[in-house]
Hints:
Layout: H1 2-44, H2 58-63, H3 66-74, H4 122-125, E1 127-130, E2 135-145, E3 169-178, E4 180-189, H5 190-195, H6 197-221, H7 232-235, E5 237-238, H8 250-263, E6 270-274, H9 275-282, E7 308-309, E8 312-317, E9 324-328, H10 330-333, E10 334-347, H11 353-356, E11 358-371, E12 377-381
Parallel strand pairs: 1-10, 5-12, 6-8
Antiparallel strand pairs: 2-3, 4-11, 6-9, 7-8, 9-12, 10-11
Amino acid sequence: MEIKEAVLAEVKALEAAVEKFKNEAGADVGDLKDRVRGIEDKLSKSTFGGGSGEFKSAGRTVVESDVFKDFASRGMKETGNISVKSFFTKTAIVNAEGLNQPLVQAYRMPGIVGPGQQRLTIRDLLTVTATNSNMIEYCREASSTNAGAIQGVDSSPAAYENVAKAESAMAFELLNEPVRTLAHWFPISNQVLSDSTALQGYIDGRGRYFLKLKEEDELLNGTGSGGHLNGLIQNATAYDTGYNASGDTYIDTLSHAITQINDSLYEADAIVVNNKDFEKIRLTKTAGTGITSGTYILGDPRIATLPTLWGLPLVSTKSIAEGTFLVGAFQMGAVLWDREQASVAVSREHSDFFVRNMSAVLFEERLSLTVFQSDAFAYGSYPAAS
């Protein structure tokens, strides 16, 4: 009996605790129910659910469905899947425009697109020789007297034997040209060097091009002072305008320059002109009224041919000033000396580059140019009437 009474006492105490919990929690539960009803009321007044003006909760949708009604009336064990559709407005999914689109990732083309590059031509016209010194010396004939004559010619009284023969003379001079270093460099972070293969190749290509572009300018226009190369134009003989005739064209003038070099006992092998002057020459047509009038002198524009004029290669470049030309015996008259061909080196030993994780990418070459005879080249301008 004592055990039974003890159990009954425990049950009554549990009932009292449950009743107390219900009384204390009732207010919160009621408030929660009111908030849910408010939300359902607001949703019922919205346009959600396809714009019908009435919102159905998931529970209401299920209860009012034909599947549930059939389930309830026939006493089935389960209803199966009942679709409640979407609670949200149907919105067309379209792609955004411009950068940073959220749905479509932009395609990044590999590599780097660079600007145009000038075609380099002057080195190819010259004789190129390697050297292992920092100074080029050459001996040149400075002057000569050719006194060759018949023995005893014009002697009085006439004697053609046992008389002194004519004496000729030659003088020589030793000239030199120093080897110059042509170089430039880029600062670049070690991280970029390691992480971007495309940038490595791009810098290498552009760095070498910059070097060769400056080389072409020095070969043509170097003044020979202040550390510059002693260039071709600096050493060329001025074009003799005495060859000019009234009405001369660009083509006529270049022919005169070739003749000037030939008269100096050299054989011209190339003509260098500015790109714009080259176009004027290329567009020159025959005159007159006959069937062949208006024909391009340099050939049929529909056919790709190597540009030549008077049998010589016609080389165009931006490195020579517009309105000027250089005709020369490039192979005989000059030599380009390669001490060190173009190379690239990378180092962190510059300023505070080591502690900043930076590197210097250096491009350089060493070269010299010797122009043996000024008469082998003619530099000048076209007549104003051309």
